[in-house]
Amino acid sequence: MNYRNIFRALFFLCIACITTQCNHQDIQPTEKKSEKAAKKRKLRALNVHYPLPQTAAAPRDNPQSIEKVELGRLLFYDPILSGDLDVACATCHHPNNGYAEYRDLSIGVNGSGFGINRTFNSPNTIPFVKRNAHTILNTAFNGLNITNNYDPENAPMFWDNRVKSLEAQAIEPILAFEEMRGTKYDEEEIIIEVISRLKKNKTYATIFKQVFRDEESITRENIGKALAAFERTLVTTNSRFDQFMRGDKDAISLSEKEGFEIFKEVGCGNCHNGAMFSDFKSHVLGVPENLKLSEFDKGIEERYAFRTPSLRNLRFTAPYMHNGIFNTLEEVLEFYEDIADGKERHEEIKASHYDEFVNELQLTSREINPIISFLNCLNDDDFDKKIPESVPSGLPVGGDIGR
Q1: What is the dihedral of CA 368, 369, 371, 372, to 10 degrees?
Q2: Which of 402, 344, 395 shows the shortest CA–CA distance to 75?
Q3: Is 389 exposed, middle or buried (0-12, 13-18, 19+ CB in 10 A)?
Q4: Does 391 have pLDDT greater than 80?
Q5: Would residue 143 be called left, alpha or beta, if left means φ above 0 and alpha means ψ between -120 and 50 degrees?
Q6: Taking the CB of the first residue and of the last residue of the chain, which one, N or C, has fewer CB atoms within 10 A?
């Protein structure tokens, strides 16, 4: 037996194994670094922000006009659109509350009072409105993406993106049982009833004819178009952040600038991006449930997913999240700190089901105050607050809000 040859073969085999292992160990960290760098580039590409456009675009079939806007304003404040003639759009979206209201969940039908002081009348069988009331401010810009483009005909609306366009959105509360419809009518009947009321009202009949110039001018579609035209004027396009992004480097403070950089670095901008600070996509975060609801709100496709809200005008939109469960921005950011650490805050949602971007969050308690400081520069209280002195129906302006 040639032991020398056997020894030589074993020697080269060992060398080959060692070399292969070393090469594998060299490749593995390199691959991981490459994957990490690619993910970082991808997230950086999402993390872009713009000032809002100066004006909102309208769909081709619903051009803006002063007359249409003023008709929409009257409809917005008139309880004639509700089943029991006691709720208007302005009941839960009043300019004195930044076109939102300081409530976790709204009280629509069979309620009285304003904002946080609103209560159900007795007796009552109506539930709370299922989700927190979005502010109407800047909803005209819903859908603005990271390339600063949007399509007003397909703009996503509501916490679950269930309808597209302001025109479609404007009709939904009229159909909703707990918001404006109530117990007297079903969804088909309420629209027929509202149209009938408007046709019988001489003032509305005249204004609709002047605005739309159709033989049948009072229709479901035209009600939505008038309301949407008014809502497109409710924009705040000159916040200090907008001024800063347009070139005024002194428009925001040093602490706000620092907060903006931290906001992006820790991962907030992965979803809160673009001019509206929202990607308008659905995400699973495991937000704690609001115990005022009788059952879990399962959100989009029953995945407990909800749309990213805009961060503009947060001063007017507390409480926060889809169910208004957090009263302050500190509570919101502490929640994000928790889920970034893998903590579970919803009994039905495991950390393994969280959105992929949650894994990229690097938020700690020391970043919370600088981020809140930055968010303040997204507020802008220069918006249309004009309230009609009366509405054509003769009903209380804004519904039964005691004002």
Answers
A1: 110
A2: 395
A3: exposed
A4: yes
A5: left
A6: N
How far, in Å, are 9, 155, 172, 237, 310 from residue 59 at the CA level? 78, 10, 18, 20, 22
Name the nearest CA neighbour of 73 among 93, 57, 102: 93
C-alpha 179/C-alpha 189 separation (Å) is 16
CA atoms within 13 A on the CB side of 188: 0
Residue indicated by tokens 């994000």:
336
What's the rounded mean pLDDT across residues 150-179?
98
Q: What is the pLDDT of residues 291-334, one digit of tens each?
A: 999 999 999 999 999 999 999 999 999 999 999 999 999 999 99
* Nearest-10 crossing angle of helices 220-231, 166-175: 120
pLDDT of residue 358: 87
| Spatial CB neighbours of 95, under 8 Å, sequence gap ≥ 6 | 383, 384, 385, 386, 387
Grouping H, G, I as helix, E, B as strand and the rest as coil, residue 302 is: coil
* Residue 64: exposure state from Cβ atoms within 10 A (0-12, 13-18, ≥19): middle
Q: CA-based angle 160:163:167, to the nearest 5? A: 135
pLDDT for position 39: 58
d(CA 128, CA 106) in angstroms, rounded, equals 6
Q: Which helix (H) or strand (E) holds 305?
A: strand 305-307
Q: pLDDT of 94-128, one tens digit each?
A: 999 999 999 999 999 999 999 999 999 999 999 99
Q: CA neighbours within 13 Å on the CB side: how many for 182?
A: 20
Nearest to 227 by CA among 150, 136, 161: 136
SS3 110: coil
